[in-house]
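Blinded run. Sample ID left blank on purpose so nobody reads anything into the name before looking at the predicted structure. Input follows.
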Amino acid sequence: MTLVTATSALAALCARLARETYVTVDTEFMRDRTYWPKLCLVQVAGAREAAAIDPLAPGLDLAPLLELMAEERVLKVFHACRQDLEIFWLLMKGRVPSPIYDTQVAAMVCGFGEEVAYDTLVQKLAKARLDKSFRFTDWSRRPLSAAQIAYALSDVTHLRTIYEELSRRVQAAGRASWVEEELARISDPAQFEQPPEEAWRRLRVRSRDRRFLAVVQKLAAWRERAAQARDLPRQKVLRDDLLLEIAAHRPRTVEELRGHERISLDRTSALEVIAAINEALALPEAQLPELEETPEPPRGIGPLVDMLKVLLKLRCEEAEVAQRMVASASDLEAIALDDEAPVPALSGWRREIFGEAALALKHGRIALAVRDRRPVVVELARPP
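Blinded prediction complete.
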């Protein structure tokens, strides 16, 4: 089994792979004790060879690999690529591998269900079974055994067969544009940006008091920057519940902050927290953040949304495409409220599969019924 630990060997490998039409790619990383993902292994495969690259090897320069990831003439094939792309986004300083192909997306377009797992595709398309004995391996520990490397490489060797079969099915079904549209969305580098000032929106905040929200915003931004600088998980810097507790009490001095028995921060952190609170309290009224009011849906919309969910399931089963590719729960609510809602389900191929039928159901041109114990769509006679 090939384990690349030297820059010269990596450069030679990537030079060979750069002549391929496509390469399959996977990563192994750890993130439970850090803010940033710790890359532990990269697996790549071309038509005739596969190799594991050890980013933790002393002196190894990943530049040849990053050049391969940026090579526009070589398609990079992943499965469920979001986390892989985030890792390369960090390594490539704001860029992502291009062009890419995600077999999970292709599988959802080909009727394999929602977020189909890699091992499922290995069984169904590659006619093989994965050894799951190393699924929970600590990939940061060295040395790696031959069995671990073999296990890791299976994530890119079977992927070749899976990609070729799914690509064929997608083309045969005339759905290549569907895949391309989704790939453009998931490979947008902007989605990996994490502005500290927006970190507060991930918190479950019940109060709409704008001054309270300002304190939460400043504290969450401080925590985000501290977590990034120290490479620690956010919760290790300051737990969500404690952050909200501090925002509610708004201590103005370090001594007052340390008076809360559940809160334990070093003096530097405590000073920074107090500075963040005071900054929030000094903001002019016009600069205070606010949460948008969620309007109460009109009476009867709930049952209509439920009916649209059934219709979505029926139409997606008929078209053999995953529901998540067509419409989200919020899309259904938007359609129930507005015939011209700006949602993907009402445009392009999604409208053909579901959007037109959704509007027809909403306006009584079709109905849902049960025949032979199966739900069906029924055309209704139009009034003369």
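Unblinding after everyone has recorded impressions. The mean pLDDT is 94.
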